[in-house]
Amino acid sequence: MSEYNEHDFGAKTEILSQTETRDLISLRKCVLAIVEGPSPKIKYDLGKKKTTKIGKKADNDIVINDKTVSRYHLEIQSTEDSYLMKDLGSTNGTYINGSRIKEGFLSPGDILTVGNTKLEFQAFNEKIQMEPSKNNFFGAMVGVSRKMRQIFGILERISPTMATVIIEGETGTGKELVARAIHDNSPRKNNPFVVFDCSAVAPNLIESELFGHTKGSFTGAVKDRKGAFEQANTGTIFLDEIGELPLDLQPKLLRALESREIKRVGSTQPVNLEIRVICATNRDLKKEVEEGRFREDLYYRLSVVKIQLPPLRERSEDIPLIAETILSHARYNKKADGTFYANKVEDDAIKTLQRYQWPGNVRELNNILERAVSFSENGIINGAHLNFIFSEATQEDEATVRMAAVDLNLPFKEAKQKIVESFEKEYLEDLLKRNKNNVSRAAREAKIDRKHLRNLLVKYGIIEPSVEDEVEETESGD
Question: Is residue 3 a part of any domain in this protein?
Answer without folding.
Answer: no
